[in-house]
Amino acid sequence: MTTTTAPAGLGYRHPWIRIVGLLGAPLAWLVVVYLGSLAALFVTAFWTVDDFTGQLVHTFTLANFREFFTNPAYLGTIARTLSIAICVTILCLILAMPVALFMARVASDRWRPLLVALVLTPLWASYLVKVYAWRAMLQPEHGVIAWLLQPLHWSGPGYGYVGIVITLTYLWLPYMILPVYAGLSRLPQSLLDASADLGAGNARTLRTVVVPLVWPSIVAGSVFTFSLSLGDYITAQIVGGKVTMLGNVVQTTYVNNLPFAAAVATVPVIIVLLYLAAVRRAGALDQL
Amino acid sequence: MHTKRLLTTAVAVSAAALLIAACGGSSSSSESSAAPGGAAFAGPVGKGEGQLNVLAWPGYAENGSTDPAVDWVTPFETKTGCKVNVKTFGTSDEAVKLMQGGGWDVVSASGDATLRLIYGDNVQPVNTDLVPSYADIFPDLKMQKFNSVNGVAYGIPHGRGANLVMWNTDKVTTPQDSWAATWDPASPYKGSVTAYDSPIFIADAALWLMATKPELGIKDPYALDQKQFDAAMELLTQQKALIGEYWSDYTKAVDAFKSGTTSIGTSWQVIQNLASADGGKVMAAKAKEGATGWSDTWMVAKDSPNINCAYQWLDWIASPEVNAQVAEWFGEAPSNSKACAMTSDKTFCDTYHAGDTAYWKDVYYWNTPTANCLDGRTDVKCVPYSDWVTAWSALRA
Amino acid sequence: MTMTRGTKALFTVLALVVGAFIYVPLAIILINSFSIDRVLSWPPSGLTLEWWSKAFQNEGVRSAFATSVQVGLIATVIALVLGTLLALALGRYRFFGREAISLLVVLPIALPGIVTGIALNNVFTTFLGGLTLATLVTGHATFCIVVVFNNALARVRRLGVSVQEASSDLGAGAWTTFRLVTFPLMRSALVAGAILAFGLSFDEIIVTTFTAGPGVTTLPIWIYQNLFRPNQAPVVNVVAATLVVISVIPIYIAQRYSNTDERGAGLL
Fold this sequence. Notes:
The complex is a heterotrimer.
Chain A lengths: L5 H8 L1 H30 L3 E2 L6 E2 L5 H7 L2 H35 L5 H9 L6 H12 L5 H5 L12 H25 L3 H9 L4 H30 L2 H6 L6 H11 L1 H24 L7
Helix pairs in contact in A: 1-2, 2-13, 4-8, 4-10, 6-8, 8-10, 9-10, 10-13, 12-13
Chain B lengths: L1 H25 L24 E6 L16 H8 L2 E6 L3 H10 L4 E4 L1 H9 L3 E2 L23 E2 L2 E2 L2 E7 L1 E5 L11 H4 L9 E4 L5 H11 L13 H15 L2 E5 L2 H10 L4 E4 L1 H9 L4 E4 L5 E11 L5 H12 L1 H11 L2 E2 L13 H4 L11 E3 L19 H12 L1
Parallel strand pairs in B: 1-2, 1-3, 9-10, 9-11, 13-15
Antiparallel strand pairs in B: 3-13, 4-13, 5-6, 7-13, 7-14, 8-11, 8-12
Helix pairs in contact in B: 3-4, 6-7, 8-9
Chain C lengths: L4 H28 L17 H8 L1 H34 L5 H13 L2 H15 L5 H27 L2 H8 L4 H30 L2 H6 L7 H8 L6 H25 L11
């Protein structure tokens, strides 16, 4: 008796057929739709726009890049955006560690699903509403923070760089807490016990044992806090006052001058790609 | 090694494919014709297609969602059967980009968008014979440089207004009649001044220079040679220190003025109307140095599938009754001379100087700066709008 | 690290402080949804249920909500199919290009949303002539793939290949194996991934503004348009508060479906 196993047999004997069969559709989607449109966009970075009609002029030129990189105002924007992204990542880490440690090591097993749900819940409150809530909170006269700081006669940081950092930290915190929590919960208690047995205090253990072992998870979390901050522009519009980030430059110039916007957009893309390459070295891509 | 090659090849192949397609696809659109946009709709205007996509300045196409009592879209839908879908934009640049993206049937374009839309082949000429209300439009709005080309009309005038200096009366206790407090480096409102977030605002800086530095010789704030332009940009850089927030979303401006985040700055009448209606202490006035302003035109998209609904809309929005409603809601002078008899406030047209040509003498409607100076100078080249955009973008960076 | 009372107390306190930081703004949104003031001021001068009743009658909100659900469902289904296929391929087989592909899958989320947005917008407006609901769904599906992929991959790795091999040995074809063996084992991971993908699509604003056609209004777009409008801003607060409350259900489901060691991992 033979059962028709030809397809299965074929796939088993020649795994590559199976691989191609599995990968065909998704790769077609990702490469054609996604990579293709990215490529089409970055090709326009080498073109220009007709002065009057706004239509694309397909002559190769490096003018957009030159204009962007030789203008100190734009270089300042790159620096400012990078610094915001780094500050947000560091702040997120500082705030995430105690919570993740609490969830992984202090809270009993029973509570963990609830705690994870509590950390996830804010992600479902609309991004825009959360930023708007911070706009209300940071308002120099009628905001919550101004109200709290009344005794100190200070109206709070108001709208600007600090406002952006606080708001972005708030928004991306769950993206840091969860991977770190996942990493910490996988940490065997035996290692921590061993460290204590060898005489290390809690702080030392944290510094020399926990952090290095959890490092890939931290880096995984940082990928999101960093890249999400790097490309953000809506937060800057709502709580940034007149401060702008790279995303704002792209958003305002894309309307009139797509090639220039595309040239500007290469910067965050390259930065993120470099970051991802470094992250891969740290073995964190698996943790994503 | 292998992975890199695979990825690179994939990217290169798709890039090449798209490049070929792009080059092939775009060569047809670089022609320009004498009367851009093809021929106007010959008519007659028939039954509506049941759908109309409207791109409008905020306040121009109210459907009751801002204020249930303010609605001239629903009556239009009932009358014509054209279901209206309105999208508002904050700046002319947004309008141009949205029109280029397609899907819209009519757009209310200011003078700094109209010519770009015409020459960019995004709109079609309008057959004014098919719009009965056109006959009553004020003559000095018809067939202007910004809404017609070579004697061909490209739209129906909507209304006009000036950009006003607006202030929060809790923060600014003396009534203002000048732009001075928004430009003076020693302004008492440093840190809470606002300005319109669009390259066209450079003209406002030029306007201030017209009043304060006549030696620069600026006659038309949209016709700036390099020297005048640089002076305007310098002024704007100086102003940046005074600015709290720039605005392009009018509702954000309403919120900012009402809450006191912004004390003073450039604004529109509709913003003051909305802020005050909600209990905000906000006042506005036209500055004595003159103002930039707008004269808007309703245009029809090239190849609009809902052409009958589009023409019905043009006639509706320019009709005396509706034109009056829009003008009163937004706070601008109507374009239809018969609208003045229909406003609920009988002195409305006088307040807004609807027929008063003297008032509009020092209002410089938004226009599209071109290399050929708009003020007629032939000895110098003026800075074209694309450079305005570049400079503004660098200022805001 | 010994968990002394002191250390435990310290971490508990710190966690509570950060927890307060996370939840205070949400509480403020909730309180403001009851506030009489139309412009956000603190403390609110009075409380009212007016906005809640207005919100449920508001047609704009209801149709935006429906559109968001529709887009989310379709995008999630596409992401489920593509993400599962990818996870099966990458989780079981070793081949060159594997790392490149996992990088490629992450890119739509890792790269700034505005870059994805204008890239897709450029292609859609240049080659497809315009934006529609379909273009929006395409954009959403693209970045939802990675969410499903992560969850599915984690599960596929845990399952190993032996179960399938046994199934093949017993004579089942590829599709039958998938249907009767692999899928039931992966189901809970896919549910968790699907819920997260749906949530991601539901709240997305940046790529949405660039890929939604003229008539398409998702809930985030509706919120963006109405955030500052005097009549609608309080309704926005109601919408946000409602979203938080009803989201507890899918989150709880997702948590119950994921295994202990997957909980929290593969979030994105």
